[in-house]
Amino acid sequence: MTQDFFIRGLGFYVPETVVTNADLEKIVDTTDEWITTRTGIRERRVAAPGEASSDLALGAAKAALADAGMVADELTHILVYTLTPDFYCPPTACLLEEKLGIRGRFAQDLNAACSGFVYGLETARSIVALHPEAKVLLCAAEVLTSRTNWADRRTCVLFGDGASAAIIAGTQGKGSARIVDARLYSDGSLGHLLTVKGGGSAAPLKLGDVVDENFFVQMAGQEVFKHAVRNMTSVCEEVLAAAGIATDGVDFLIPHQANLRIIDAVAKKLSIPAERCVITIDRYGNSSASSVGIALAEARQTGRIQPGAVVLLAVFGGGFTWGASLLQF
Questions:
Q1: Count of CB atoms within 10 A of residue 155's CB?
Q2: SS3 content of the chain, % helix, strand, coil (to 5)
Q3: Angle at Cα 301 formed by Cα 161 and Cα 62, nearest 5°?
Q4: Exposed, middle or buried by CB within 10 Å (0-12, 13-18, 19+), for 110?
């Protein structure tokens, strides 16, 4: 008998501070028109001073627990996907565990860059396959503005902060989504096209060093665009073919919210009309690992996603990593 895996609850959290394109016009050589036409972003959320990834994850986790009708003590595993952890040590997952008021759980940080939420769903499925009684909290949380160079007009307009969460288990609850299938890939030979190097063991900081551009997000935009469109399209086609579902059987496509042009290109190649694409990039920018989960949780919360809906998640991130997950509500 094949085991099923379910998302029992969804949640998201974004910081209160809104930074608009007009705000960015005051600090860098850019315009609202330039940002909007090239990215689709009109505003983004920025964490307050002292507000860390674990704090955003806590807000998303509480929302997911409430959605699932659960309390934190029922959780058995905590996964946090992030490329902006609170610290190198202790792990953000352990900090989140403490903030949830529980102890003794499996708690682990992982990093698949912007693909984190979908990679996390697969990791959670693996845990539940081994431990059928498990109830796994998956959080994808980023304070990406902490690694944003506000003097670089090419990248500083893109990023925002936020967190999303899902609770995965082997039994369903009210309003659950079944994880039908997933496909995940990577290509490390292209990792140099999208980097955050500074402070790592290959680019360590020494006492007294001045932070340079390597500390912040750097990317070859056109190359990333090309690979993102090609790989997200192909992995979506693969996961749909494996499930025997045509693209007209997909109720909603939720792609990584990196750039509206990328989203439009992927949807066009898959023949999925714009009205069936969930878009949040205009309000939240690119929040990396958390973006797909934020869009999914918000669409559920607002009633856009109804029981019976087939939802296709597609992601692409540094590494390169990419993947797709198919959900049935």
A1: 18
A2: 40, 25, 35
A3: 60
A4: middle
Angstrom distance (rounded) from CA 267 to CA 305:
18
To which residue do tokens 């936020």 refer? 162
Q: Listing from the earlier edge strand, what are the strands of the sheet with 106-110?
A: 106-110, 77-81, 135-142, 162-169, 6-13, 177-186, 321-328, 310-317, 252-255
By the 8 A CB rule, do 279 and 40 touch?
Answer: yes
Among candidate residues 145, 139, 171, the one with its CA nearest the CA of residue 158: 145
Separation in Å, CA 122 to CA 111, 126, 249, 295: 13, 6, 22, 18
Q: How far apart are CA 138 and CA 128, in angstroms?
A: 12
CB burial readout 128-148, b (16+ within 10 A) else e: beeeeebbbbbbbbbbbbbbb
Residue type, 80: V
**33-75: pLDDT as tens digits:** 999 999 999 999 999 999 999 999 999 999 999 999 999 999 9
Query: Which residue reads 């959290």 in tokens?
Result: 13
Q: Which residues are catalytic?
A: 114, 256, 286
Give this prediction's pTM: 0.96
Neighbours of 235 (CB within 10 A): 22
For 108, 157, 198, the CA distances from 217, given in Å and listed in that order, are: 24, 12, 9
DSSP state of 277: B
Helix and strand numbers, DSSP H then E, in the chain: 9, 13
